[in-house]
Design goal:
Layout lengths: L1 H5 L23 H4 L4 H7 L2 H6 L22 H7 L3 E3 L5 E3 L1 H13 L6 H6 L9 E6 L2 E6 L2 E6 L2 H17 L8 H12 L12 E9 L4 E9 L5 E6 L2 H5 L1
Antiparallel strand pairs: 1-2, 3-4, 4-5, 6-7, 7-8
Helix pairs in contact: 5-9, 6-8, 8-9
Amino acid sequence: TWLALAVETAVAAAVAEGLFLAALVVIWLRGYLVPGTPTLTKRYLPERALAAFGKAPGDPVVHPGERGGDPDLNVEGRLREAGALEPCRDGDLCLTEDLRAAWHDRIDALGDGDIAGPLARLGVVDPGASVELVERDRSTVAVIDGRRAGMWESDPAARADLTAADLLADRVPDWADLAPADRVRLTGGLRVFLETCPACEGVLAFDTETRESCCTSREVAAVSCESCGARLFESPVDTDALAA
C-alpha cells in the first residue's frame, strides 16, 4: 500500500498528526498499526499523537473535545472486532471486502442534505440540524448557522469520515455508549486504511511540501489522489526529529 511503502523512508516516520473535526482533534498514524515500527513510533511521534491510540506514557494527554474519552481505547482492536479490518499481505491490516464495498456505496450515495445524520452519530450535532459543507482556505468545513462544526482536508475526506460513522454505528455494539472523542478516533483510524480515493477511486500518493504563510514556513506530509488531486491527509513533519 502507499503508506506501507512510505513507512520504509525516514520521512514517513514523521507522518504523525492530523487535524479532524475542529472541536474534536484526533491523531492517526497508520505506521503505528503496522508490525515492526515501534522504534520509529517512539522516536518520531509526539506523545500527544501516541495518546490518540492509548500509548502515551504516564497520564493520558487530553486534547480539545476529547474529555470523557477512554485513554485505553484500542482503535485497531475495536475496528477488527467490528469486522472493518483484517490481516492481509505482509502482516499488514486492510479493510475487509464487505466494509470496503459498503463504504464506497455510502460515499457515492451521501447527498449534501445528509450531513447532519452522520455528524450526529459522531455526537457533534443534533440529528435535525441544518448543516452544509463549504470550502474554506484549502479545507472543507461543516457549518451550522454560521458556526464551524467540523473540518477536513477535502470534501472527499469529509465524506469518507461521515459515512464511516454510519457504518461503524451499525457495527460497533456499544457505539451509543462511546464518548464523541472515541467515535472520532475510530472513524479517523478507519480512514487511514483507504487505498484509493473516495471521490474518483484514483491512486493515492504520499509526498511532502513546504507550506508558506506571511511569516513562517513548515514542512507537511500529505496523501493526495493522483487523478483528481483530492487531499486525504495532511500532517506537519517534525524536521528536527528527522535531523536527529
